[in-house]
């Protein structure tokens, strides 16, 4: 690697092939500072998400964003208790959903795939802007649908906490040991030559 990495990343994440360091330094902390995200900075994340690849250029992703205390309070009841313990400190919450239909009313089979790509772009730009993001699957989708008035032809994928990173010590003790970058499986576990095989 031609770029230096933060010690906490370098100790736990070493690529087998050279890549841009942004892919290593982006991870999902849980400790958030009590600091607002300026609107222009926040919108840059969604600008990045906007340019994700999209099957048929349908761009099925949608984001419902909560920035004020009142908006975030609407999100909190449908988030699982274990996640609420830390994500209530995040200054921004967003729910990512995707439209499941094509223009002619058929199923868009790539809607979730495209929404995932869009979230990935958002997460990388957040890291570029000095922010952290943490996507959560631990929430009640049907309660979110009702609370946020999400139509039935949209799938709900994740709640994302967005903000500036806070100190590890601000977390409950049970979360502190998990506040480190995770490793990844080797390429041999998921890249197969010619046909599928069990890793």
From TrEMBL:
Pfam family, one: Nitroreductase
UniProtKB keywords: Oxidoreductase
Gene3D superfamilies assigned to the protein according to its UniProt record, in alphabetical order: NADH Oxidase
Transmembrane stretches, start-end: none
Nitroreductase domain segment(s): 25-83
UniProt superkingdom: Bacteria
Keyword Signal: no
Name of this chain's protein: Nitroreductase family protein
Family statement: Belongs to the nitroreductase family.
Keyword Hydrolase among UniProt keywords: no
């Amino acid at each position: 690697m031609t770029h230096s990495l933060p010690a906490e990343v370098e100790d736990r994440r070493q690529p087998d092939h050279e890549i841009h360091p942004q892919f290593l330094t982006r991870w999902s902390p849980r400790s958030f500072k009590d600091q607002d995200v300026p609107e222009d900075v926040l919108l840059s994340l969604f600008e990045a998400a906007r340019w994700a690849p999209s099957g048929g250029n349908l761009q099925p992703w949608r984001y419902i964003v909560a920035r004020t205390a009142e908006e975030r309070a609407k999100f909190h009841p449908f988030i699982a208790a274990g996640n609420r313990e830390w994500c209530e400190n995040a200054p921004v919450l967003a729910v990512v959903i995707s439209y499941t239909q094509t223009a002619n009313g058929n199923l868009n089979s790539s809607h979730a795939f495209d929404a995932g790509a869009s979230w990935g772009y958002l997460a990388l730009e957040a890291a570029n802007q000095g922010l952290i993001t943490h996507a959560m699957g631990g929430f009640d989708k049907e309660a979110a649908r009702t609370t946020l008035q999400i139509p039935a032809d949209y799938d709900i994928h994740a709640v994302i906490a967005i903000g500036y990173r806070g100190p590890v010590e601000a977390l409950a003790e049970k979360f502190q040991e998990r506040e480190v970058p995770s490793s990844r499986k080797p390429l041999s576990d998921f890249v197969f030559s010619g046909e599928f095989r069990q890793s």
